[in-house]
Amino acid sequence: MLQVQFIRQNKALVLERLALKNFRELGVVDEVLDLDDRRKKLTQEYDDTQARVKSSSKEIGKLMSQGSQEEAEKLKAEVATLKERLAPINEELNATEKLLLETIVKLPNLPAAIVPAGKTPEDNVEVRQGGAKPELYAGAVPHWDLVKKYNLIDFELGNKITGSGFPVYTNKGARLQRALQNYFLDFNTAAGYIEHQPPLLVNEDSAFGTGQLPDKEGQMYFATEDKYYLIPTSEVPLTNIYRDDIVKESDLPIKLTGYTPCFRREAGSYGKDVRGLNRLHQFDKVEIVQLVHPDKSFEILDEMVAHVEKLVASLGLHYRILRLCGGDMGFASAITYDFEVYSAAQQKWLEVSSVSNFESYQTNRMKIRYKDGNGKTQLVHSLNGSSLAFPRILACILENNQTAEGINLPEVLHSYAGFDKIA
RNA sequence: GGUGAGGUGCCUGAGUGGCCGAAAGGACCGGUUUGCUAAACCGGCGUACGGGUCAAACUGUACCGAGGGUUCGAAUCCCUCCCUCACCGCCA
């Protein structure tokens, strides 16, 4: 969430940036400031009164030990009066703080200066393309036909066991998943990311920390009995590792990577966009997360983009990198680059990675800080990116490398998969 | 799931109603000193939200798992919840 202090000092900028993100309820900004004023005033009042209660209480103790019962009783009566005043102040203060929090979390992060204006994906700016556009042979088909033909994925079986969007990977399809996992993780750890295997269910605090709560409950599966959320991405448990911590400045940057299944309800999605592997309720992803010094986050964002680009390129896929416009960015992000790979058989671009700088938006929620040279506590910046999400990568690998004789795997996967061709 | 014990600062650990934001030791930071890959000594060393200040200094309040209660006063007493550990049960 945004910092009140920052909003107070940069109100005009905040309003302008929020508008770029197509955030309409600009009145929320004033609400936040009013509530914060009120909070301060009540805090002052409460603290002053409480200070008097405390000093009187000490006095009472002294009087009693001196045997001055009468004096003590008089003071007790005074304290009782003060405490009567204290209760309603405290109640109002708590209510105000709660409302302030509920209000300020409605504000999305401010888009960075270089974020393009716009409302829809059409307004995203293409930064660059890479890889060769695949030429398919005449008999080429989409991946949902290929996986059937070669027995790689059974969607119907997933329907039977669970429901739609929960595919069963079989034979070389399953093995390929395992290959992707190992390849991606090795690629990330080679770049200094520390591998983690986090829980797949998280508590409410964690879901709040990365910005899934409030408001996005509907996107997550929820285990009601224990009040745990199934993670929509490993970003959630990975970033929350450092929740409420003050890390050493010298420990930055902290680089994490992890493989997990991801669970998304994706309520309301339908049609050709969700065909085959294009959109699933359960899918696999390797994530990279960094916690960094605030002065470095944009530099590191570029590094992370370059890192993911190398990975995508190594798979021989035709890709493009988009800088998302204000309207298409996530709620918590200050700037996001999307990676899309080209599916020749579907003749469309498929998003496979999203790399974002959240600046202090998440860390302010999670209270992830470091001490600067002056001993002052500062928020670190958080970033993350997919490196990579499996299903669409898999779809493109299958589709783009199909021949009349079978599917040729990208060379980097040969040793991981244990085979180089699906036939 | 059952029974028992317990949750105190970065760590260990003392503290059963006022003198406790909290002993002591360790770690860490700064300094002094000793001619040796280190020791000794001195000092510092929580967080949050206010006030104050150019910034500090300084200062108020809260926090000893969380929330509530008793009391003039709570780390200390009571209640609820959460968590940890041990043993038993069950089990990958």
Keywords:
13 helices, alpha+beta, 423 residues, BirA Bifunctional Protein, domain 2, 2 domains, RNA-binding, single chain, 42% helix, eight-stranded mixed beta sheet, Helix Hairpins, 19 strands
Morphology: elongated
- End-to-end Cα distance: 51 Å
CATH-level-2 architecture of the largest domain: 2-Layer Sandwich
Give me the side-by-side strand order of the main sheet: 1-11-12-13-16-10-9-4
Instruction: Return the structural class.
Output: alpha+beta
Name the CATH homologous superfamily of the largest domain: Bira Bifunctional Protein, Domain 2
Helix content: 40-55%
Q: Into how many domains do the coordinates divide? A: 2
Number of helices: 13
| Portion in beta strands | 15-25%
Number of strands: 19
Q: Would you tell me which CATH topology of the largest domain applies?
A: BirA Bifunctional Protein, domain 2
What's the level 1 CATH class of the largest domain?
Answer: Alpha Beta
Kindly report the average pLDDT value. Answer: 92
Radius of gyration: 27 Å
Outline the biggest β-sheet: 8 strands, mixed
Pick out the low-confidence regions: none
Q: Helices and strands in order, then pairings?
A:
Elements lengths: L3 H6 L1 H10 L6 H39 L3 H36 L20 E6 L12 H7 L3 E2 H7 L6 E2 L1 H20 L3 E3 L4 E2 L1 H6 L12 E2 L4 E3 L4 H6 L5 E2 L6 E10 L18 E11 L4 H18 L4 E5 L11 E9 L4 E12 L1 H6 L2 E3 L5 E3 L1 E9 H11 L1 E2 L2 E3 L2 H7 L3 E2 L1
Parallel strand pairs: 4-9, 8-14
Antiparallel strand pairs: 1-11, 2-3, 5-7, 6-7, 9-10, 10-16, 11-12, 12-13, 13-16, 14-15, 17-18, 18-19
Helix pairs in contact: 3-4, 5-12, 7-13
The chain binds one RNA strand of 92 nucleotides through helix 3 and helix 4.
